Amino acid sequence: MVIILITKAILSICLGAILFILLQKFSSTRIYKQPGYLIEYGFTKGRINKCLRILVTTLAILGPTYSFMLSGDLGLRSILLPFVAFPISLALLLPVEFKRAENSQLVFSKPLWSSVATVHLKSHYQSFSRETYVELIELVKLFPSKGVSTIKLTSPMFYHPNGELRSLRTLEKQLARNKATLRHAPVRFFDCIIGKIIMSVNKPKVKNTINIRHWHAITIDLERRI
After folding, report:
1. Which of 66, 52, 48, 65 is nearest to 23 (CA)?
2. Residue 127 sits in which domain range?
3. What are the percentages of helix, strand and coil residues in the chain, rounded to 5?
4. Model pTM?
5. Nearest to residue 221, comparing CAs of 173, 165, 152?
6. CB 217 within 8 A of CB 153
7. Predicted confidence (pLDDT) at residue 118 exceeds the cutoff of 70
8. Phi/psi at 107 (nearest 5 deg)?
9. Domain match, 102 and 171 both
10. Is 35 in the same domain as 63?
11. Which residues pair with 151 in a beta bridge?
């Protein structure tokens, strides 16, 4: 009896792992390294899609266990909690990335019940080029119609290699033309810990001049449009 249970457990774990790996190979079911949704897709639809992906992944991971080991003890609650409540809760909590176009250099996320969008570079060590600033202005124009009133950006890329803050005067002028205002300040040492860890882990092998210990935060307040 014990050997049968152990065999079933091993089979269910292996099958769940295989199904999970297979799902990550398809763009329609992938939840890891998933490309951002186009903003025209909509914030709400993006979260629904994320929820469905998590639901399918949960089914693939737990399904074999339920089939092999718990088939005789299943109740409504034991099905609803892992296969419905868990995916929905996770989809609501996890950030969903969006982009303005397929070749966008910026990606952004927005909590479902918030009017604040967090914008960041598509790649960790990507620089703020002229094209990136142009794209940011396009987002400033677009966001009010999507229910966004504030944009936040936090990055070490706002500093020159010598530690001097890059000029933001041109950006301020562009924002003023679109009736948006800019606020900015250095980030405290213990803030952005996760971002600093991610950039440390993904640090390129070639020598770079970015000091990931110094981060700057930019907040853009947008004009409300009815």
Report:
1. 52
2. 98-221
3. 50, 15, 35
4. 0.76
5. 152
6. yes
7. yes
8. -125, 160
9. yes
10. yes
11. 117, 220
Q: What is the DSSP code string of 31-57?
A: -SSPPPEEGGG-HHHHHHHHHHHHHHH
The mean pLDDT value for 43-53 works out to 81
State the average pLDDT over residues 15-26: 80
226 located within any domain: no
- pLDDT tens readout for residues 134-160: 899 999 999 998 889 999 998 888 888
By the 8 A CB rule, do 211 and 163 touch? Answer: yes
> What pLDDT sits at residue 56?
83
- SS3 assignment, position 203: coil
- Which of 60, 93, 126 is where one domain is finished? 93
| Domain final position from 93, 115, 148 | 93
Q: Length of the chain in residues, anyone?
A: 226
How many percent of the chain have pLDDT more than 90?
Answer: 19
The answer to whether position 114 is within a domain reads yes
Counted domains in the chain: 2
Does one domain contain both 106 and 88?
Answer: no
Instruction: Identify whether 183 is part of a domain.
Output: yes
Q: Which of 132, 108, 141, 116 is nearest to 41 (CA)?
A: 108
